[in-house]
Amino acid sequence: MKPINFLQTTASVALITGCALLLSGCPEKDSRTTINTGDGTTFASRDFIWNIPADYPLPVVPITNVLTEEKFQLGKHLFYDRRLSGNGTQACASCHVQSLAFSDGAIRPLGSTGEMHPRHSQALVNIAYNASVNWGNPTTVTLEQQAPVPLFGEFPVELGINDANKDEVLARFKAEPRYADLFAKAFPGEASPIHFDNIVKALASFGRGLNSFNSPFDKHEAGDTTALSAPALRGMRLFFDEKTECFHCHDGMNFTQSSFDRTQSFASAVFFNNGLYNIDGKGGYPEGGEGIYEITAKPEDMGRFRPPTLRNIALTAPYMHDGSIATLEEVVRHYNDGGRNITSGANAGDGRLNPNKSSFIRPIGMTEQEIQDMVAFLESLTDRDFVTNPRFANPWE
Amino acid sequence: MLRTVTSFALLASPLAGFAHTDEHKHTPDPTTTTEVGAAASMTWHSQGAADSDGLWRIPGVMMGGHSLPVEKGGKLDDAILWGSHRLGERTTVSAKAGVHNDGTTSIELENLTLDYQPNTPKPITVSAGLLEPAFTPSAHHHPSTDTFAESTLLADAFWGRSIHDTGVRVAGNPTANTEVGVEVWNGDFFPASKGEGAQDIYAKFNHERAGWDLNGGAWAMQANAAKRSDDRYFSTDHSHTPSGVTLTDVQFSGDTQMAGTWFAVSAPVTSGGIKAGLRYEAAQAQSSGTLSDTTRTASYDSDHLAYAVTPSLEWRKLKLSYRLEKLSLENDLSGNGAQVLAEEANLITAANPKRETVQVNWQLNKKIGARLAYTQDNTLAGSDDRVSVGLVWQDTLYKK
Questions:
Q1: B348 and A26: CB-CB below 8 Å?
Q2: Taking CB atoms and an 8 Å limit, are B335 and A60 in contact across chains?
Q3: Which of A133, A323, A388, B328 lies at a C-alpha separation of 20 to 30 Å from B185?
């Protein structure tokens, strides 16, 4: 080979080698999109196992607590762990039982120190969508705001963690080998991730994943003509009829007007008075159960509570914010009457005449058959998959 | 004499790095007074590049301009006619008109430029009119004069495939093989918006020695936009939106700053008759401004990176090329409308769009070439592969 040809061939080989180096070394960063809506929320990925149909909008997620499967798993372990109470006797799951759609069946629950809660345990169903979180507090709008309340609350005491025992509580988690891995994966990069800020974030992340959209009603909406019984179908038509007005407060995919997802610009945190009490004839409610009046002190807010989702409502008896109505049928009769008339006792008063009552609450005049149909429809909102799904079950068992 | 055509050469010289053949590039001979040329390309694609809804919207990037997807079946890619005429020793006028497969059916005047070279110690050319940019060869893509029928992803994402705009360019040659220039534009091209203006500055060089041919350059551009729509789908005079597809017109207002570098190198022909070449281009685009629809607004900042690498081997009438293209897309939105606008503008992504093309060009005769390409297209959520077969015709119609 002539020298010049050798040089040319070498140069060509060098050029091709350079190509390979360029191909492997081209500058590249991972694509990403971050969104801060100004109210501290961010877009979450559909890659998370949401249990939400693909064509339904996702909830909003705080930018300070990006949702991950690792946080969800840690949150599940904490949710079912009695060591997350001051005296080690209760867990979140003590008052939120999966088989009851994460309510507890009690009229009002007892905390870890025996104090009775003034509110009935809420079902934890699709709570990621809640425009406000509590029965009657418009200022608590995220699960991260809510989670510390049962942990540290004193009025009433729920899980009973306080300054005196908080180090002991954390020590329990630090001593549990399983948590070392769970915390490390949920909060990578933190040298000491076992602290209450992260516990709150993990609990909120677990709550955010508790979604239920697989009831017979959902199957009916998806085109299964056999999913609903004839009474349930009649009840559904009644529910969405102006005659009953039900859907005005319990509308949308979550059967509550108090629902917020990432397609909405503004959260609709609504509260209604449904004529449950009228103690003094001026709209009075029992002390400790006065709705958002306890926050705003506005007379017109007396007795106004957030309309809860009706999904899985058949599993969450007793009903109302104080568990004062025992059965679903009684709830339907309450609305059919346009409120509740209590004729004796400390809470006596005609709720039907409550001056703060929502204009949607008025005598409906349903027949006995229609009442039974309405109950049948509400029962069709029960998602059996949700209450048996191992993904939501106690990981310690 | 060479000075009199510097500006036109400026437009044409980058084409040399890409031209399907060297026979029909746009550069007139310095001794030529008048020249007219033409080219056309048609390609058949086994698959289109659009999504199932008929749209080609790469997740994570706001697109516009002429970045329309290739369509399944056979189509005329483009047909262009260009010419130049020397008016005097220092003045040349040049023009280009053509039809492109970009939804329009009428002949479009793409280029009408007057070049003037004042009597200066170092060559300087002032060009004004409807210009094609000189800052990088890939800023004006013509399937009939390029190796590939499809433009680069970089060009599609960063400036809407091709730039044709009213503007002024001042270019100089500090040395015989270097060139620096400044271009000021009216802004009638993506990512600018009409009348808002854009400017770029560039430097280029070329070097030939012992059979090696090396040319390259670096550039920077700044473009302004006010309520810029994706004019592929929200233009007033035509619409490519497939029927039944409802899009929200998300408009961008703000600045875009871009910078890039490119080079093309070819080795001497080996004793076996093989010639190796490599072309590389990388660019970064950063936008800062606001997004809005009719009811919402959000702040928007983006940092996008793109590159294309094209090694090639030539043997006799055949040329084998492989082109790898990637985009990295970082977007930050904030404000009350950020969530909705991000979805409407298709900005949610965690993927790096990628496209790979293997192509064989075959020069059938002096005027006609054929090309066969296999493309693995991962610019959208799902991967799509296609085979493309095309013919290119180039000719000089008149020369004096």
A1: no
A2: no
A3: B328
